[in-house]
Amino acid sequence: MSLLGILDRVADKATFDKAIGPAQRAVQAALRPQALRDLLHGTWLGHPLHPILVQVPVGSWTSAGLLDAIPRMRPAATVLIGTGVAVAVPAAMSGAADWSEQGIGVRRLGLLHAAGNTVALGLYVGSLVARARGRGGLGRVLSYAGLGIASGSAAIGGHMSYAQSSGASHAATAARALSSDWIDLGPLDDLPEGRPALRTGKGGSVDVPLAVVRRGTKVDAFIGACSHLSGPLYEGSVEQVRGTDCLVCPWHGSAFDLDDGQPRRGPAANPQDKLEIRMQAGRVMARLPGRDR
Ligand code: FES
What we know:
This protein is of the alpha+beta class and 293 residues long. It is 47% helix and 19% strand. It has two domains: 5-162, no CATH class; 170-287, Rieske [2Fe-2S] iron-sulphur domain (Rieske Iron-sulfur Protein, 3-layer Sandwich). Strand 3 (206-215) and strand 4 (218-223) form a beta hairpin.
């Protein structure tokens, strides 16, 4: 078994599930204002915020490790360590917000990831204190120990993204399976008014669910799997969110602007893939834009 394959075993273990539930509720209670959660998810950005923020501590601490090896550069290393510590706090908050809205396998590994990062952060804070007290040797020992643990924890975070698709757009994955042909969604009059309907497009040998909304003569069609965790958008609702008509996911309440698919409310941070529409003899035709023109 590969080293990171062991993490899949960990993700299957229910050993710490009793701690995960209360931790999840505590995070959700602490981040209760929806606007704060959306800020931390990256909903406003149309991209998960956590992987962007973590670049700062990872880059700063790695660079500090190199500069610490050069005696005259050690003051610069201390500045970099302080920068990493300062940004690690909002990065951790962003990660916690995402973690609290993920499936159980991701939450299990996420607990390990968070524990590693907390230890690493503590070591770096200890390193700053030691350096401030003139104990540079101890400060370097603590920061190198922090770098080792932070690197291991980053590998776990990478596994959560690459192997467990945490933060990935599940809609984009479904969209890649869709063929480039125009899809016949049936007569306009068969679509219900103001609520999503299920239609399907061809994706090789499988059907790709689509969520189709009719507002008068206007039709909006989206990949049916929610970008957050593949929730069935065709079983959702149409609601006004922040002044715009949105398609709302029935699983965790993410809202996507019907006009452009951008997330207007999280936990989704990725947009929902939208199909282009044309009418043909009273029938609604759709396909993903940019395909096989
Ligand atoms: S699957 Fe989570 S909001 Fe849609």
